[in-house]
Amino acid sequence: MKRILVWFLAETDAVVALGIAIVAGVLGLLDVTTTKLADNTILLTLAVLSLAVLRDRWRSMNAEHGLTAALNEVSGRLGDLSAMHTTLIQSERALREIAAVRLLTGPREVTRAHEDAREQTGRWVFKGGTGTYIRAVTLPECVRLARRDRRALAIRLEILDPVDIDACERYAVFRRSMAELTDATGETWTCDRTREEAYATILAACWHKKRYDLLEVQIGLTSTMTTFRYDMADNRLIITQDDPRIPALMIPRESFLYASFHTELDRSLAQARKVPLDLSSTVGLGDEPTPEEVRGLFDALNLPLTLPDDHVPRIIQKAIHARNPYP
Question: Can you list the alpha helix ranges (DSSP code H) found in 31-149?
Answer without folding.
Answer: 35-100, 106-119, 132-133, 139-149
